[in-house]
Amino acid sequence: SSDLPVGSTLQGAVIKKTPTITFVDIAKTYGAADFNLAATSNSTGTISYSIVVGGTGTASLSGTNNQTVTLGNTGTVTLRVSVTSDANYNAATKDISLTISKATLTVTADNQTKIYGASNPSLTLQYAGFVNSESATDLTTAPTVSSTAVTSATGVGTYRNDLVASGGASS
């Protein structure tokens, strides 16, 4: 037997849960292609992304719900995923770190030829690995090439690995 009259309704509070959000730290290299974030949740609420102010690197977000990341400068960027509430779950957020590491730039001293007794020729460099349409003019300090093994008095012959590229910096 029931204590409720026929036709009565039972009312009560709906207790929403905190959703589970899966969103893990990301590591990329400067110059990498744009990519989409892909957090998941057991909530049916809308997932969107934002950047938390204060990191040491830079990035920008675009596209549907800001899911597309364009990398900026190297360092760490804090990304936040937000899930809106639905019938069963509260709204929630989760932060992760996007670490943007430096790209590898290879500097190689060009092979040179000199005549015995003459001064060393101008020593030059080649670069491999610039990204984002950058070039040697974007370096904050250009590398140099030198040789201490080859002088005007050095005998005739082949001297491998005697030209050394060093220094250089880029922000």
Description:
A hairpin with a 5-residue loop joins strand 6 and strand 7. The chain has strands spanning 21-22, 26-29, 35-36, 40-41, 47-52, 59-62, 68-71, 75-83, 92-101, 106-109, 125-128, 144-146, 164-166. It has 171 residues and is an all-beta fold. It is rod-shaped. A 4-stranded mixed sheet has the order 2-9-8-5, with no helix packed on it. Strands 3-7-6 form a 3-stranded antiparallel sheet, with no helix packed on it. Strands 1-4 form a two-stranded antiparallel ribbon. The relative contact order is 0.17. The protein starts with 20 loop residues before the first strand and ends in a 5-residue tail after the last strand.
- Please report which band the strand proportion falls in: under 5%, 5-15%, 15-25%, 25-35%, 35-45% or over 45%: 25-35%
Would you report the number of β strands? Answer: 13
Q: What is the radius of gyration? A: 30 Å
Q: Which blocks of ≥5 consecutive residues have pLDDT under 50?
A: none
* Helical run tally: 0
The side-by-side strand order for the widest beta sheet comes to: 2-9-8-5
Largest sheet: 4 strands, mixed
Mean pLDDT: 90
Order of helices and strands: EEEEEEEEEEEEE
Globally, the shape reads rod-shaped
How would you classify the helix and strand content by structural class? mainly beta
User: What's the end-to-end separation, in Å?
Assistant: 79 Å
Q: Helicity range of the residues? A: under 10%
